[in-house]
Specification:
- This protein is an alpha+beta fold and 324 residues long.
- It contains 6 helices and 18 strands.
- Strands 1, 2, 3, 4, 5, 6 and 7 form a 7-stranded mixed beta sheet that branches.
- Helix 5 packs across helix 6.
- It is elongated, with a radius of gyration of 22 Å.
Length: 324
């Protein structure tokens, strides 16, 4: 048993898990003092405190008799608050994570949400690709300033990712205040040119699962696929790219997951009902285009995948071509 005192930085969405064939509701909170954090899972009646809004982000809590699994003790910063845990809201002021090492992430990917989660990727001040895991829609698409925005700098705190099938760049997203600043046009161009890779192969055959290329767009188009929804059968919109990278190799039917590009595409579709596809292709060809590319998880039990997983486009960045 452990006691924890800290400020609630994030409340992750409530989910259902099965314990001995019984469905239980559980929600994780990120709670931190000045130096470090704990990921505390609220179970049973403690979850109801969150559902009723009795505990909110920003509250300072004293948690007594939280349980830590012996298998995880000293490995993961996790604890469980259940039946015998006592939770008290206190008035102490805590400068959460004041002594922690934050990093500046220049964001290159904010993907469309999937099951409430959002794929984020970018490059930190050391030139390393980072993919924060455990980012949810309420971290991105709430009112006010988002925590992540393409070609903007976010100051974030991340930790090692201990989930299933970890990729080289995966990190657990602990906390971030939001977007600190957006790069101007010249800064965007300089940053993209400095970090662009030579080809798709140079990214994925080097052991990375994220990269940046500057291709020639050959075709961009929309597909709709059948999908089951809560209301029955529906359709999922997919935008796909055909392109040629700097090696001269042509890649076809790559799925695009960039949330901002879907918005641009759909706005053009509303405005130019019959010609939006052609107009978009012209727009992409007359400007400099950079694509952030990524690999999905690798464990699909599918043989003969060239890169061991499925590649996709996670960020579309358009910079006006320089005039001479």
């Amino acid at each position: 048993m452990v006691n924890i005192t800290g400020k609630v930085l994030r409340i992750l969405p409530v989910k259902e898990v099965k314990v001995s064939e019984e469905a239980k509701k559980v929600a994780d909170l990120i709670i931190a003092d000045e130096f470090d954090y704990k990921r505390v899972s609220f179970w049973d009646d403690k979850t109801e405190l969150l559902l009723r809004g009795e505990i909110k982000a920003g509250d300072v809590l004293r948690i007594e008799n939280a349980y830590v699994s012996e298998a995880r003790a000293g490995v993961e910063k996790r604890a469980n608050a259940g039946k015998y845990t006592r939770i008290t809201r206190i008035t102490t002021n805590i400068a959460a994570l004041r002594q922690a090492n934050f990093l500046n992430l220049t964001v290159l990917a904010v993907a469309r949400p999937e099951k409430g989660q959002v794929c984020i990727a970018g490059i930190d001040e050391n030139g390393d690709w980072i993919r924060p895991q455990g980012v949810y829609e309420n971290d991105i698409f709430t009112t006010g300033m988002p925590k992540f925005k393409n070609l903007s700098v976010s100051n974030i705190y991340v930790d090692a990712w201990r989930g299933m099938r970890p990729r080289k760049e995966d990190r657990f997203f602990v906390y971030g205040e939001g977007v600190e600043r957006e790069l101007n046009v010249e800064e965007k161009r300089e940053f993209l040119e400095r970090n662009v890779d030579a080809s798709v192969d140079s990214v994925f055959k080097s052991g990375r699962s994220l990269g940046l290329i500057k291709p020639r767009i050959l075709h961009v188009y929309e597909e709709k696929a059948r999908k089951k929804t809560e209301k029955g059968k529906g359709y999922e919109q997919y935008i796909r790219f055909n392109f040629k990278d700097n090696s001269g190799r042509i890649y076809r039917r790559w799925s695009c997951r960039c949330n901002a590009f879907y918005k641009t595409w759909n706005e053009s579709k509303k405005k130019h009902r019959w010609t939006y596809g052609l107009r978009m292709l012209r727009y992409l060809r007359k400007n400099d285009i950079y694509l952030a590319i990524g690999l999905t998880y690798t464990d699909y039990n599918v043989d003969k995948l060239e890169y061991g997983a499925y590649p996709m486009i996670v960020g579309v960045h358009v910079v006006p071509a320089p005039s001479f």
